[in-house]
Amino acid sequence: MDIPVILSPQAKEVYDYLMITALMSKQEKMLLAAILTKVEYLKQYTHYGNPLAKKLIPKEYILKYDISNLFRVELPLFWRLLYSLQHYNNSQVIFIVDILNHKSYNKKFGYRNH
């Protein structure tokens, strides 16, 4: 089963940045390849990521995108891909909410850096 994938404006911005910089940077190339691989996994296994408790979903995501579930996928270099399973036009879609580096992820979720 191949489920459609939609990127939020935030996720699209990061994806587009990686598409450009991957041509010149091994790290960005590795990160982009991992994202593409994980998205293919998600199309086959929608619950591939780690579900986050509803109380941990940042209010920003709830207000902007009206999501009620959020999953986290670990990426290389301590990056994270956050996605939600949504229903549009009577079918399920994978909505990629954000793609974050470790520092941005910690800030978004209120974790302190040590």
Mind explaining what this structure looks like?
This protein has helices at residues 9-21, 26-44, 59-65, 102-109, and strands at residues 5-7, 50-51, 71-74, 80-88, 91-100. Helix 1 (9-21) crosses helix 2 (26-44). The protein is α+β, with helices and mostly antiparallel strands and 114 residues long. The chain has a single domain, classed as YaeB-like fold (2-Layer Sandwich), CATH 3.30.2310. A 5-stranded mixed beta sheet has the order 1-5-4-3-2. 41% of the residues lie in helices and 25% in strands. The mean pLDDT is 93. The chain starts with a strand and ends in a 5-residue tail after the last helix. It is built from 4 helices and 5 strands.
Compact description:
This protein is 41% helix and 25% strand.
What are the SSEs and their pairings?
Layout (H helix, E strand, L loop, with lengths): L4 E3 L1 H13 L4 H19 L5 E2 L7 H7 L5 E4 L5 E9 L2 E10 L1 H8 L5
Parallel strand pairs: 1-5
Antiparallel strand pairs: 2-3, 3-4, 4-5
Helix pairs in contact: 1-2
What attributes characterize this protein structure?
alpha+beta, 41% helix, 114 residues, 4 helices, 5 strands, YaeB-like fold
Secondary-structure element sequence?
Answer: EHHEHEEEH
Tally of discrete structural domains: 1
Largest sheet: 5 strands, mixed
Low-confidence stretches: none
CATH class: Alpha Beta
* Multimer state: single chain
Distance between the termini: 42 Å
The CATH architecture classification is: 2-Layer Sandwich
Determine Rg (CA atoms, Å): 14 Å
Beta-strand fraction estimate = 15-25%
Structural class: alpha+beta
Mean pLDDT: 93
Number of helical segments with 4 or more residues: 4
Strand order of the largest sheet: 1-5-4-3-2
